[in-house]
Amino acid sequence: MSRTLLDPEEFEFQAMDYEQLLPSGRAVVDRLWQVLGGVARAVGLPDNRIDSGDAKDPIEPAEKQVRISAMTAQQPIWTDNAGRHAIATSFGPVPLVMAEPAGASNGTVLLVHGRNGAPGQPQIAEIAEAYLALGWRVVAPELPHSIALPDSGPSDRVTFSGHTQAAAEVWAWVCQQWPDERRALAGHSIGAFAIAHLAAASPEVHHVLAVSPPLSGRVLLSAREAMGPAAIEAVMHEAPLYYAEMPTADAAPALARTQAALAVVTGAADGLVRLDDARAYFNAAPNGRFFAALPDEHHCPAGAACGRMLSAALSALGA
């Protein structure tokens, strides 16, 4: 089956968020699809394939997109009942999506999205819901330079170092707000890259949960090289500063210094963070507790099987 680099469900969830937050939300999403389609054609992909760099899943025909919209519009997501807050950072105000557990809090997790990510995307929602089910408070920032977040700034300005620094500033705020609670770090894709650095500098962190985690920029570059020239050209065009950091961005030294228990959940069919590369992330940490690869899942795992695996991972971490 042909696979591409964006899950349509990610943008259906985003469409709902935009409609709640912006007066012209649907127009924003419609324009986003137009822009991404233009990028696809520019890099030589078929008209029904678009490359976001942060997922690898099929784009369905337009008529199926309409059906998906109708179905997902009726499905609750963790952000529906979450609060919103913004904090000052060196990047400007960063919005936070925050959800409280039903009962007493067992701790607070900082949940970091990847490149072109957002708290409402299915792979992030799956992680959030696993934590909420165990009584954890979830804090998920809308980090700068994500194409899925129209107010976050130009997506071509994203970098590994900037993503990590923005996450670190939110983490510092979390630590100040809940100094006496258990605190954990979770991240997807380069969100997992970022939290490796945060964990290394935070010996008190309870645990780390990494989903589809790249050990380095070189891992992601190598995966794109295996896909062919169009995949390299796409990332060079979309995110030139990110591309420039790919040869040197490395989480291995940070993971080697991380004392917290680590779990990794990944898709066995992920074409961006390949299975051996996800294992390398896990093996780089001295306190790895749980590793799981979901059959047939790609870069943005979600669904019932993923939810069960995340619950097992959190159990192994003592969450």
Question: Would you kindly provide a written description of the structure presented here, covering whatever features stand out?
Answer:
- There is one protein chain.
- It is built from twelve helices and eight strands.
- It is of the alpha/beta class and 319 residues long.
- The protein has two domains: 8-72, no CATH class; 79-316, 3-Layer(aba) Sandwich (Rossmann fold).
- Strands 1-2-4-3-5-6-7-8 form an eight-stranded mixed beta sheet, with helices on both faces.
Separation, N- and C-terminal Cα atoms: 37 Å
* Overall outline: globular
CATH architecture of the largest domain: 3-Layer(aba) Sandwich
Strand content: 15-25%
Class from secondary-structure proportions: alpha/beta
Number of helices: 12
Measured as a percent range, the helix fraction is 40-55%
Average pLDDT taken over every residue? 83
- For the record, the count of structural domains works out to 2
Low-confidence stretches: 1-53, 55-73
Total strand count, please? 8
- Please list the strands of the largest sheet in the order they lie side by side: 1-2-4-3-5-6-7-8
**CATH-defined topology of the largest domain:** Rossmann fold
CA radius of gyration:
18 Å
Text of the CATH class of the largest domain = Alpha Beta
Domain AB hydrolase-1: 108-213
InterPro entries: AB_hydrolase_1, AB_hydrolase_fold
Organism: Paracoccus lutimaris
Pfam families: Abhydrolase_1
